[in-house]
Q: What sequence folds into this?
């Protein structure tokens, strides 16, 4: 694996962290301004919300495209192209003449932003393996978990002063900073390891990643963990403000504190003997936390059972984000661009599925139900992963 100076290593940590956070900030930072945007464009709330859906579709589709393409042309050229696409579409969205034009720009923004997400994992896997890869992906996993939670809070803090257009100029500025950092970034996918066939044949090879059985298992684990995270993110404001009666300011503070749980979990995942232990502990912790949350809010109708077990659940989400990413990237190392693409897209696609479901019926009950389904499905995937470890280490173990 590559050996870097301490200075470049610190640069790489910062660079990959920014790339990982970019996608969630693209989707979530402007959420507090949605009501005012409906007024500006003289349209309905649902039309404005289509922009959010469009950006999430772009983030999912873009990863499937940019990941494999980077296996042929290298990470740096693809990243620069993605950031240019993001920058142009961001400026275009600011000057959108209609909501329909704006929503198209949001899709293109998502496409551009997806390049940063998928390449953050690919670059890390190019440069590191084993424990060092786990350390780097722990940082990326923490950012991936914290960014969707903190982006709306930051947007809410600045939206009153700068409005939705100001938020988009901030996003443009972040893209410009990443473009400038590309000048320092050293290509991590060396020429001799690149795919030499045509782009068409490269994209046709994409389904081959599904032949890696345990890559699929780790991707399922990640997808259901994202289901837990997005169920929480999309329901928290309604539960904390409407159900428990907290103000918008109090909600922002609670939301921010809970975000720390994901970061703590990502850091603590490195304390386990290996990532399969971390995934098992994280998935079991999510399932138990959801059960206790349901029981606690039923027996004690107050905020604290909900908050305590939400925080422990998010710590366990941090375990799983790091563990599933490390395991999947190691498993798919020979097709890392494609592996990173499928892996990352699964999280956003699953998040897009569960987000509208939390609003069905009583939002507290529906959210707990979705958290339980996602948590126990993640536990099943973690158990399959854990059994693989024990069978390899103990050949005499009985087969499943």
A:
């Amino acid at each position: 694996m590559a050996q870097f100076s301490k200075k470049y290593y610190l640069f790489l940590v910062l660079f990959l962290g920014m790339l990982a956070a970019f996608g969630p900030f693209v989707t979530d930072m402007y959420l507090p301004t949605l009501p005012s945007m409906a007024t500006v464009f003289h349209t309905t709330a649902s039309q404005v919300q289509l922009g959010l859906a469009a950006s999430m579709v772009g983030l999912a589709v873009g990863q499937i495209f940019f990941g494999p393409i980077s296996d042929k042309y290298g990470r740096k050229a693809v990243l620069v192209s993605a950031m240019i696409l993001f920058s142009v579409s961001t400026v275009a969205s600011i000057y959108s003449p209609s909501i329909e034009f704006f929503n198209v720009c949001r899709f293109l923004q998502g496409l551009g932003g997806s390049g940063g997400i998928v390449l953050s994992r690919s670059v890390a896997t190019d440069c590191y393996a084993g424990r060092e890869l786990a350390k780097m992906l722990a940082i990326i996993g923490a950012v991936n978990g914290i960014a969707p939670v903190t982006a709306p809070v930051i947007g809410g803090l600045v939206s009153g002063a700068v409005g939705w257009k100001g938020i988009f100029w901030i996003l443009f500025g972040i893209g410009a900073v990443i473009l400038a950092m590309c000048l320092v970034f050293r290509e991590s996918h060396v020429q001799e390891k690149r795919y030499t066939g045509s782009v068409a044949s490269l994209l046709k090879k994409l389904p081959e990643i599904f032949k890696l059985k345990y890559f699929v298992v780790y991707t399922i684990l990640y997808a259901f963990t994202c289901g837990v995270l997005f169920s929480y993110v999309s329901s928290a404001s309604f539960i904390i403000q409407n159900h428990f009666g907290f103000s918008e300011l109090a909600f922002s503070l609670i939301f921010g504190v809970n975000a720390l749980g994901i970061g703590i979990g990502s850091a603590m995942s490195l304390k386990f003997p290996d990532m399969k232990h971390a995934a098992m502990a994280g998935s079991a912790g999510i399932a138990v936390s959801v059960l206790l949350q349901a029981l606690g809010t039923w027996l004690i109708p107050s905020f604290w059972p909900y908050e305590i077990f939400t925080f422990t659940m998010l710590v366990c989400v941090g375990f799983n984000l790091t563990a599933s990413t490390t395991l999947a990237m190691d498993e798919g190392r020979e097709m890392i661009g494609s592996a990173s693409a499928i892996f990352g897209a699964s999280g956003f696609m699953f998040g897009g599925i569960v987000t509208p479901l939390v609003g069905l019926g009583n939002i507290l009950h529906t959210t707990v139900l979705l958290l339980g389904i996602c948590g126990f499905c993640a536990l099943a995937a973690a158990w399959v992963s854990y059994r693989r470890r024990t069978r390899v280490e103990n050949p005499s173990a009985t087969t499943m």
Q: What stands out?
A: Residues 390-400 have pLDDT under 50 and may be disordered.
